[in-house]
Amino acid sequence: MDLGLKGKTVLITAGSKGIGQSIAEAFAEEGCNVAICSRSKENLEATSADIKKKYNVEPFWCICDLNNGKDIENTYNLVKKQFGKIDILVNNCGGPAPGMFSELSEQDWQSAFEQILLSIIRFCNLAIPDMIIKEWGRIINITSVSVKQPIENLMLSNSLRSGVIGFAKSLSNEVAKYNITVNNIAPGYTLTNRLYELAVLRSKNENQSHEEYLAEMAKHIPMNRLGRPEEIAAAVVFLSSCRAGYITGNTIQVDGGWVKGLY
Predict the structure, then answer these.
(1) pLDDT of residue 193
(2) CB of 34 within 8 A of CB of 42?
(3) Which residues, in sequence order, are bridge partners of residue 60?
């Protein structure tokens, strides 16, 4: 299937490892101009070199703290200068601090708000005017299954990622007439460093190894396994394609069936 993505420019935030890196690799394989950003220069250089070796496509990269508005503006402008356009914006970010409500400070809430929701708003403010001029664009937000079924001890993620869903649905209705789609991907339990860290943290409280905890987690998934980052990336690439031009305002779970609800 020709997805019509060759030559398109994609910017992936938090694109230097985990799900973000897999998304960058998937777009490189489709022949896109790939730009990635993250806070770690070391990770950006390593990921860029790895993608170039695999796909003969060298990503453009920028150091960007998603909690910093000036970093976001600088990143967008540098990518636009490099490629002349940004067709596809993939808003990804690391997870905020875990914790129950009673354990979180106001600063924890403020930082998570800037990281998860405000960073998306800032990037969309920059990208949408250019997409409107071209009358084509794709915005994909990486959220979590916590927007469908809240996860214990992840108060910040449960709350603010749900805000992303409300923002995206509202925005999709405003920009649809310009042939711009806005969708969300809600990954389930996926084998990334973030999941590994959560498993280590929780295993300490439950008197078991993190390997045992991950195995137990997989038992609650109908497919009886954890997800792979490239499976998330495949959904992102399809939603970004010309083939998905009539899909907008949706949140699609890639979770092996973990969410039990109908909606």
Answers:
(1) 75
(2) no
(3) 35
Tokens 């495949």, residue? Answer: 234
DSSP classification of residue 261: S
Return the number of other C-beta atoms located less than 10 Å from residue 164's C-beta: 24
What residues does CATH 3.40.50.720 cover in the chain?
9-189+228-254
Q: Containing H/E element for 257?
A: none
Long-range contacts of 166-169 (CB under 8 A, 24+ apart): 167/117, 167/120, 167/121, 168/139, 168/141, 168/249, 168/251, 169/249
Q: What is the DSSP string of 17-69?
A: SHHHHHHHHHHHHTT-EEEEEES-HHHHHHHHHHHHHHHS---EEEE--TT-H
Residues 6+ apart with CB under 8 A from 232: 19, 22, 23, 142, 185, 187, 190, 254
Give CA–CA dist 75/36, Å, rounded. 9
Instruction: Collect all residues with Cβ–Cβ distance below 8 Å to 221 and sequence separation of at least 6.
Output: 188, 189, 255, 256, 257, 258
Please tell me the distance from the alpha carbon of residue 74 to that of residue 180, in angstroms, as a whole number. 23
Two structure tokens written together for 19: 């799900």
Q: Which CATH class is domain 9-189+228-254?
A: alpha beta
Residue with tokens 């990143």: 75
Q: Which pLDDT tens digit goes with each residue over 189-244?
A: 998 877 777 777 777 777 778 777 788 888 889 999 999 999 999 999 999 999 99
pLDDT digits (tens, 9 = 90+) for 45-74: 999 999 999 999 999 999 999 999 999 999
Taking alpha carbons only, the member of 261, 262, 184, 259 closest to residue 223 is: 259
Q: 201 near 195, Cβ under 8 Å?
A: no
